[in-house]
Amino acid sequence: MDPCSGDPHLGGASWLLGLTSLLLRVCSTGTQGSAAHGSGVEDSGNPVSLKGMQGASVLFHVIRNPDLPAGVELEKMTWGMFSGANYTTVLQVSPGARDPEWVNFQDKFQKRVRVLNMTTLTMNNLILEDTGLYRVRDSYTKGRQYDRDFNLTVYEPLPLPQMGTTNLSITPGWCNVTVQCDTPDTREDMTISWRSKGLPKELEQGGAPGPAPNPWTLALSLPLSQPSASLTCVLSNQVDQKTATLDLGDICGHADPQEQADASQLPTILRVVVVLLLILGAGLFLWRTRVKKSLEPGRGVGSLEEHRDPDGGIHYAELSQQESGYSRDQDRSAARLKGEMPLTTVYSEVRRPGVAMMRI
């Protein structure tokens, strides 16, 4: 007879112990599985950030998980990429294999991807479409797997900035100028900043990420006594940097003190010239007015009869009488020519009655 059959309390206790043991085994198995899976999730949740420039290369390198126990060997590396939420295997690498095993996208990647070893590969001649999330899965013995994610961003090469100046003016001792930096286009991934040489540090301005104003301008007031200085426009993003430098000494010139003094006196000289021109114009106007009045009717030669010559005291009336006699002689000559008056000769005077002849 079974010894336990006679004690119902002992049978219930045995059943309870068996149920507890089963639950413990299930929980232990679940904990081990979640631990292995949790390692992969942890790696996938912290992607490695990779940045590359269009046309350049980028390196993918996987480091062995330090939590792996001794004796666990790497069996296979699987490289893949995400398209949205979908993961696609691209290639697999196994120990001892000379070439990778291509699974998908062979036409897109085969000529540009080079496997250096089990844990490292390079992608060459990057294109903008290569930007995205990539995952590498390490498969070890004893069924262990770990994931490592890489977030790749491919940038366009930056254009070369162009520098110029506007609003240039020279004042006594100072050069005032506005420097501008132009870029062919504006992008979200680039910044613009200034670097100076021989200028106060306050002139250095950094740009924040995001599209910068185009052109980027900076107004300067520089002492002409300042040694040769330069200003550099720096255009940069995560993977590239382009610069352009402007020599301010070539813009402002190296004027000596005498040239600066001449430049400062230029406004005064201009004012003097303007005043002289005004005086000359006023004098010319008065002279023309007097000449016009002297030529008006009634103010001709006759008007001179009322004045005296201040030097010799000779009356202009005498000059007027002489001019009148001369006019009468001219009238007589004209009358004779027209036949109004007879022509008088010496012979006619002699023959005229009542005129005595004179013997010589």
From TrEMBL:
GO cellular component terms, A-Z: membrane
Entry's transmembrane regions: 268-287
Signal peptide limits: 1-33
The UniProt record lists the keyword Nucleotidyltransferase: no
Annotated localization: Membrane
Keywords assigned: Glycoprotein, Membrane, Signal, Transmembrane, Transmembrane helix
PROSITE patterns in the record: IG_LIKE
Domain Ig-like: 161-245
Descriptive protein name: (raccoon dog) hypothetical protein
Species: Nyctereutes procyonoides (Raccoon dog)
